[in-house]
Write a structure and sequence with these properties.
The structure is a single chain. With 298 residues, this protein is mainly α. The chain has one domain. Helices cover 78% and strands 0% of the residues. The protein contains 14 helices and no strands. It is globular and about 60 Å long. The two termini are 14 Å apart.
Length: 298
């Protein structure tokens, strides 16, 4: 019975985390569509996300009578700081280096998560997970090979920081075992305040504020809620791999919205990533299902 429940939890984790990765893939297109100054966009997006966190917390606790902490203890605060500064460094990366550089480097979230989980949680990734991640890195390399340029060193460094901070947040969430669903939303107040203080004195400079508000009020809360909930059901490396959905889908949305046609190589790389991710998920579910079938015989 426990193994059946475990398999169901794993499938739930795949669904929740996959939805989060899908929502996250719209982030860069929405940022670009807003056409704003970097600090203004950071302030608007982060403060909108914080408002959603407060509303969700009130609804869950007062209306649905589900006792959930906005930031559950010290672990929640640490994970939240990682998420908050990750948003800060990500936006800096988007504005200071090529988009291809950003999505390629952030794709290493899963690699960082695997290493951190191995070091601090003693969770050695399975051989299948390691192979899948290697295939994904190859697919990402195909996507950005032609478009990867030297870029700005500062922007590339910020992208590296984003990947490491996200992986750290995933690892802390996994280690604590607590419900971290609202943590990345609530702690968005930190980058929001920083962005507001650094934005132009005459006010937020955003040409199309509706897009960034949609991102902050809907897409980012949905993405981070799902991705922060994922570690309750999946290992840190598995959750980290779903961040790669942004690498797969963002070029497609950019193609549709801005008419930037991806190359055949990009499409091939995206196909490799999707097949690797789906193949790994199916393999995991079959392994768990097989264990459930075999166990009654012992």
């Amino acid at each position: 019975m426990s193994q059946t429940i475990d398999a169901a939890h794993h499938r739930r984790g795949l669904l929740i985390t996959g939805l989060g990765g899908l929502a996250l893939s719209f982030d860069i297109p929405l940022i670009r569509s807003s056409e704003g100054e970097v600090w203004s966009l950071l302030a608007a997006r982060s403060l909108c996300t914080f408002v959603v966190a407060l509303i969700a917390w009130v609804v869950l606790n007062k209306v649905l009578d589900r006792k959930i902490a906005l930031v559950p203890g010290k672990a929640g605060l640490v994970a939240g700081l990682f998420y908050g500064f990750g948003s800060f460094t990500f936006l800096l990366a988007v504005f200071n280096t090529a988009t291809a550089n950003v999505v390629f480097i952030v794709a290493f979230t899963s690699m960082f998560a695997a290493v951190l989980s191995w070091i601090f949680l003693k969770e050695r990734p399975s051989n299948a997970t390691l192979v899948t991640m290697a295939v994904m890195v190859f697919g990402v390399g195909l996507i950005v090979q032609d478009g990867l340029k030297s870029g700005n060193f500062f922007g590339d460094a910020m992208a590296v920081c984003s990947a490491l901070l996200l992986a750290s947040a995933i690892t802390v969430s996994r280690a604590s075992g607590k419900d971290m669903g609202l943590v990345p939303l609530a702690t968005a107040i930190f980058p929001g305040i920083i962005g507001y203080l650094l934005s132009p004195s005459e006010g937020l400079a955003i040409a199309h504020p509706g897009w960034i508000m949609f991102s902050g009020l809907v897409m980012i809360p949905l993405a981070f809620f799902c991705l922060a909930t994922g570690p309750r059901y999946l290992s840190a490396p598995e959750v980290g791999m779903f961040y790669l959905l942004e690498t797969i889908l963002a070029p497609i949305w950019i193609w549709i919205i801005f008419k930037e046609i991806p190359t055949i190589q990009t499409l091939i790389g995206g196909t490799i990533l999707i097949l690797a991710l789906v193949g790994h998920s199916v393999w995991q579910m079959r392994q768990r299902s097989a264990s459930v079938v075999v166990s009654p015989l012992h």
